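It would be a great kindness if you could assist me with a short task in structural biology. I am sending you one protein, given as its amino acid sequence and as whole-number tokens for its backbone shapes. I would ask you to consider whether the tokens describe a fold that such a sequence might reasonably adopt. The full record is reproduced below for your convenience.
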Amino acid sequence: MRRALLFGVVVALTVLLLATLASGLPGTDQQAAAAVEERAPTYDPWISPVWTPPGSLGESLLFAAQGGLGAVLLGYYLTRLREMDDARDA
């Protein structure tokens, strides 16, 4: 129980710290666009995206869905580990 609580506190503090520090940092897309403009102003991409989400809201929803799926998979994995540990002790 203490480990789970400690793990939750560490994760919460890490997320809070990263959220406050990363608010002023540019994303990789802006950095890549700036680097391309700086080095080769006549950059011509080889391929274009198959589908782009409609606006920033669509991107946020996709990101949240990916995070939610990752959280579900991690929770499932940790639950299985705990069940295996309990079965071994019994």
Summary: The first helix runs from residue 2 to 21. The two ends are 19 Å apart (CA to CA).
